[in-house]
Specification:
alpha/beta, 9 strands, Ribulose 1,5 Bisphosphate Carboxylase/Oxygenase, 2 domains, four-stranded antiparallel sheet, globular, about 240 residues
């Protein structure tokens, strides 16, 4: 196992690994413990009591962060005609169909999210093997397949702070809630919205304790364990 560096050890000394903190305390500690020279992303990691192998225990959806994500999102829209013009007007970075299908097949992946209208899904289906494993394939459950009349609103939401969440094969969720440069109030607002969304998304098939562990961390910093009950009870303002 590689040893952590001096800065990480110093940051870790601020946190008691045996203690669970309130969300407010955790946010303050994550900001205090961040030591990278860049503006680190703050993420919440959730250990869930679900079986990802079961179709009725899947957790996947989108959540709009009230304070935004703090990052610039490069948006590719698979559309043509009026929908393509609407996408361009709404500020999409790349708009097209067949030309971008070919570029992606040739190895181009310089975008962060892909959106498509239903009418072109058949033509981009071949990209599933490339985009699927990277979480970039347009999908109705992720809110990235939009009707032509909704393309503009979808792009605005993505720009404004909409993020996707999806449970991984080990039953964990990893969701960004902002940047270290955000104020504590902004991070709390985003975290509250995420927690409320996840609590409401509980699959009916799940029995017993739904959330097993909550950890807040920055990109390079140590994790801060959050009190499960306090995090579960958070509600958007």
């Amino acid at each position: 196992m590689p040893k952590h560096g001096k800065k990480f050890r110093e940051a870790s000394s601020l946190i008691d690994p045996a203690h669970t903190y309130t969300p407010e305390e955790a946010v303050a500690l994550v900001k205090q413990a961040a030591f990278a020279k860049f503006d680190e992303t703050v993420e919440v990691h959730l250990r869930m009591n679900v079986d990802p192998r079961q179709a009725d225990q899947q957790l996947r959806g989108v959540v709009s962060l009230p304070a935004g994500t703090g990052r610039t999102v490069r948006i590719l829209v698979f559309a043509e005609g009026e929908a393509a013009r609407d996408a361009e007007a709404a500020g999409a970075d790349f708009v097209g169909v067949d030309d971008y299908v070919q570029r992606i097949q040739d190895g181009w992946l310089e975008f962060d999210v892909a959106v498509a209208i239903p009418q072109v899904m058949g033509r981009i289906g071949r990209l599933g093997r490339v985009l699927g494993p990277r979480g970039l394939m347009p999908n109705p459950r992720a809110g990235t397949v939009a009707q032509p009349e909704d393309i503009g609103r979808t792009i605005e939401e993505l720009r404004g702070g909409r993020v996707e969440y999806r449970v991984d094969r080990t039953a964990n969720l990893h969701i960004p809630v902002g940047k270290v440069s955000f104020t504590e109030d902004q991070l709390i607002a985003n975290l509250a919205t995420v927690m409320d969304t996840i609590v409401r998304a509980r699959p009916a098939a799940v029995r017993g304790q739904y959330i097993r562990r909550v950890v807040l961390t920055s990109t390079m910093g140590p994790g801060v364990q959050v009190d499960i009950a306090a995090a579960r009870d958070m509600r958007p303002a």
